[in-house]
Amino acid sequence: MKRKIVIIGGVAGGATAAARLRRNSEEDQIIMFEKGPHVSFSNCALPYHLSGVIKEADHLVLMNPELFLKQYNIDARVNSEVIAIDRTKKVVTVKNLGTGEVYTETYDKLILSPGATPIVPAIPGIEKVNVFTIRNVVDIDRLNQFVKQLETNEVTVIGGGYVGVEAAENLRKGGYQVSLIEATNQILRPFDYDMVQIFHKVLMDNEVNLIVGDKVEKFEENKVVLSSGRVVKADAVVMAIGVAPETHLAKEAGLEIGDTGAIKVDKNYQTSDSDIYAVGDAIEVYHALTHSVTKLSLAGPALKQARSVADHINNRSTLNKGYIGSSAIKIFEYNGASTGLNESLIQALNLKINYQVVRIILSDKVGIMPDATPMHFKLLFEVPTGKILGAQAIGKGDAIKRIDVIATAIKFGGTVEDLKDLELSYAPPFSTAKDIVNYAGYVGSNLLNGDFKQVNVDKVRELVENDSYIVDVRERYEYERGHLKEAINIPLSELRGRISEIPMDKPVYLHCRTGQRSYNAVRALQNVGYQNVYNITGSFLGVSFYEYYNDKLSNREPIVTEYNFK
User: Fold this and answer.
1) How many CB atoms lie within 10 A of CB 234?
2) 254 and 165 together in one domain
């Protein structure tokens, strides 16, 4: 039987639902309303227009109404805002933003995909600066055209989430003087504080004026005034502090709103009205690891939701296992990805989880390859089950591949023991024969078995300041190039002949460059009776990255004689 299906909103969710609906049925009439001028565009690629990576704004547009009609027989109406939903009559009221005409359209099934709106708080003096947000092609084109006309090239981005960081990076690549302001103590919350310091350093190295832990208090003429009293010049301000789910239509229609402030949906993405579905940034979803509802502004989940809705409307079976939140980012020469839980989220939600941490640094490919670089990797697993909870990877190499493996393992209920047994593709230009993912399984299993003890890089400053007994097992030439202050150098190659120098009556902390040699030193000492020995995870390379940004930011005394980043 022919039905009329109306979709409110295009881009990822709406356009995907429309295309899937058509693949499921040639009979249905499908109408999609989009308030903006573009029915489908690459939302996540918007910041890359600022650097010229995507040269023309039109290149961000993926589909136009004419092509949608020809290829899919879908009536896509742009510049058309749905201003009301009458659930009783099953009618939507539409305003043509070009002509001002207001008309109604009936529906049998309705899909809401309105997305989210950038948050622009009423900060005092906001009218004194040129404020921009990034939501669609029109926004990014307007920002790009404006900054091209600037004489001083000073742009300030407020907000250290994905959009803010990507905007800052691409503006810097475009030749602008960029400040990035984040009110909390770090950017990019999907990464833990100890991992994100790598990105803090990368931004600093690329001359982005990164300011964390300082809130915007007010604006003055082309200036941002922070709570610390610091003043930042800003001929343009990009507001990227976050987004709010677009729920106005849903609320006006009497649909149920969840505790998160987003539209409440069931496992089939049906709202409190069984004939109305909702997908994308406007809804709340089930988090498979926290066992609670959350908001998740990611394109991948929106596409999955849209497909499920189109299938459910056509009586096809669907499956909703919840979401774990996998994401990736590129910041200058470094790549990063994360999935699942991190320590910050566990603490913020007060989750009663007993977990352990694997923190390792390995070469992203065979070390003799000329482009081999360190990969920083952190994995959380549950104790005593070994179930994988989440992971983060940052490096110049393929961090995304590693996190995708972990995300897959989490979805299948994998443990650290499973990681040991994974057969991953290998060739010297791509990885090592035992990939960092495998190593994470080895280290996790050893920790689970109580084979050794460790401390993370974020505890090292405290150890140094408390005159703890620290042994550097790198070779002498490495030690001379930079080391922890007061650390004693006993190279692994000399360890067995100098064991008597190491006390047995106090805690001993060992490190090398990345933690591998010092792990071997810990095991060697344990084998001859030492009980109170600890491996410093990430070791000197990890400590250097962790300490650097805050050392420079606060002008505090370093705990190293020289940093090492290679």
Assistant:
1) 25
2) no
Same domain as 458, residue 424: no
Angle formed at CA 316 by CA 313 and CA 318, multiple of 5 degrees: 95
Q: What is the DSSP letter of 415?
A: B
520 CB neighbour count, 10 Å cutoff: 16
Are residue 252 and residue 228 in the same domain, yes or no? no
Per-residue pLDDT of the chain (566 residues; tens, 9 = 90+): 789 999 999 888 999 999 999 999 999 999 999 999 998 889 899 999 999 999 999 999 988 899 889 999 999 999 999 999 999 999 999 999 999 999 999 999 999 999 999 999 999 999 999 999 999 999 999 999 999 999 889 999 999 999 999 999 999 999 999 999 999 999 999 999 999 999 999 999 999 999 999 999 999 999 999 999 999 999 999 999 999 999 999 999 999 999 999 999 999 999 999 999 999 999 999 999 999 999 999 999 999 999 999 999 999 988 899 999 999 999 999 999 999 999 999 999 999 999 999 999 999 999 999 999 999 999 999 999 999 999 999 999 999 999 999 999 999 999 999 999 999 999 999 999 999 999 999 999 999 999 999 999 999 999 999 999 999 999 999 999 999 999 999 999 999 999 999 999 999 999 999 999 999 999 999 999 999 999 999 999 999 999 999 999 999 999 999 999 98
What six digits make up the tokens of 339?
Answer: 């999935």
Tokens of 125: 């003096």
Please state whether beta strands 91-96 and 102-106 pair in parallel, antiparallel, or not at all (unpaired): antiparallel
The continuous run of DSSP H or E covering 405 comes out as helix 399-411
The CA distance from 203 to 164, in Å, is 12
CATH assignment of the domain containing 435? 3.50.50.60
Dihedral pair phi/psi, residue 179, rounded to 5°: -110, 140
Grouping H, G, I as helix, E, B as strand and the rest as coil, residue 559 is coil
Residue 326 lies in a domain: no
CB 415 within 8 A of CB 334: no
Please report, as a single letter, which amino acid is at residue 308: S
Q: Are residues 141 and 235 in the same domain?
A: yes
| 347's tokens | 């603490």
Structural domain includes residue 321: no
The structure tokens 């080895």 sit at: 442
Up-side HSE of residue 542: CA atoms within 13 Å toward CB? 30
At 284, list the tokens: 């709340």
DSSP letters, 193-222, are HHHHHHHHHHHHHTT-EEEES--EEEEETT
Q: Which of 76, 278, 490, 512 is catalytic?
A: 512
Instruction: Establish whether 44 is a catalytic residue.
Output: no
362 lies in which domain range?
333-451
- The owner of tokens 């990681």 is 419
DSSP state letters, 220-273: ETTEEEETTS-EEE-SEEEE-S-EEE--HHHHHTT--B-TTSSBP--TT-B-SS
Q: What is the pTM of this model?
A: 0.95
Q: Residue 77 is inside which H or E element, if any?
A: strand 75-77
Q: How many CB atoms lie within 10 A of CB 466?
A: 7
